[in-house]
Write a structure and sequence with these properties.
This protein is mainly α. Helix content is 79%, strand content 0%.
């Protein structure tokens, strides 16, 4: 007999349906924000190129590596849960949580660097969008860290039933959304901004 926690039926959608409605809404909102960014950029390319040149790509790259690592750890936790490897699940969620905390620390350094250079939300359109978008994403990271903490504590008891796996997959799906949003922000702000 197949264990429902380890068996994934064909066409399996991870998590609960409600999380996918939330993710779809969030993706729609961020898609509109990305379009707004591109419209503003097209209206004043020189300003956006100058703003891009003032960003610290090293900070952006470090945060990208932290987000990608955290997503890998969350995916590893889900795979370990399917194998009933409780300690691995808890450790992976804990390490992913640490990556999220590292992301916030880097963002504090990055924001401090900008503010010290007198670059704020009111400097120009580029920095208005930079601080707004990265700030909204930072709120997502904080919420995601709450989700990861809950998943880590929830996993300590083991016994990963089908229902418990659905809860873990829902939380993991939200964290992967947070990662995806950062990847797009990193590309828009740090990579293509100067082209």
């Amino acid at each position: 007999m197949t264990d429902p926690a380890t068996h994934k039926p064909d066409g399996h959608m991870p998590g609960e349906e409600g999380i996918w409605l939330f993710i779809a809404g969030d993706l729609l909102m961020f898609s509109l924000l990305f379009v707004i960014f591109l419209v503003y950029r097209a209206g004043d390319l020189a300003l956006f190129q100058a703003g891009h040149a003032q960003l610290n790509q090293t900070w952006g790259l470090v945060n990208t590596m932290l987000m990608l690592s955290s997503s890998w750890l969350v995916a590893t936790a889900i795979q370990a849960a399917r194998r009933q490897m409780t300690q691995v699940v808890v450790a992976c969620f804990g390490l992913a949580l640490m990556c999220g905390a590292g992301f916030i620390v880097v963002k504090v350094f990055e924001y401090s660097e900008k503010i010290a250079a007198d670059l704020t939300l009111t400097t120009n359109d580029f920095f208005m969008l930079y601080f707004s978008y990265t700030g909204i994403h930072l709120i997502h990271v904080l919420i995601g860290m709450g989700v990861l903490t809950t998943l880590m504590l929830y996993s300590r008891s083991g016994a990963f039933t089908a229902a418990k796996m659905q809860h873990l997959e829902s939380g993991a799906s939200f964290w992967h959304l947070v990662d995806l949003l950062w990847i797009v922000l990193f590309a828009l702000l740090y990579l293509v901004g100067g082209r």
